[in-house]
């Protein structure tokens, strides 16, 4: 089995210089669902399991085809300054962009760029 470990980097054009929690509003956003689940359960969910938990279980949107969803498009990496570490079993955890852990992972494992907010 190949090593899946990688760090999804914060978007190059992310507007923050320190990770922050997505705001709590009247209606919970997808970013807020992702954040709450991953903060409370680091390394519990794979990418597909996370999307299933958010959309099918939490939001009760069973008709959504989550196979095309991609963590590199997450608002957490684009707008809120969170890197996503995928361990060697494919499970996800949030890593604050300003942390020593983020810098260490950036230097020691495979990294992937997230999608930019503005297309160049």
What report would you give on this structure?
By secondary structure, this protein is of the alpha+beta class. It has one domain. It has helices spanning 30-40, 47-58, 75-78, 100-108, and strands spanning 6-8, 82-86, 92-96, 110-112. A four-stranded mixed beta sheet has the order 3-2-1-4. It starts with 5 loop residues before the first strand and ends in an 8-residue tail after the last strand.
Question: What is the approximate shape?
Answer: globular
Fraction of residues in β-strands: 5-15%
**Share of residues in helices:** 25-40%
Rg computed from alpha carbons, rounded to a whole number of angstroms: 14 Å
Largest sheet: 4 strands, mixed
Q: In terms of structural class, how would the helical and strand content be classed?
A: alpha+beta
Distance between the termini: 36 Å
- Low-pLDDT stretches are none
Q: Work out the number of β strands.
A: 4
Order of helices and strands: EHHHEEHE
Provide mean pLDDT, rounded: 91
Strand sequence of the main sheet, in spatial order? Answer: 3-2-1-4
Secondary structure elements and pairings:
Layout: E1 6-8, H1 30-40, H2 47-58, H3 75-78, E2 82-86, E3 92-96, H4 100-108, E4 110-112
Helix pairs in contact: 1-2
Please give a handful of descriptors for the protein shown.
120 residues, 4-stranded mixed beta sheet, alpha+beta
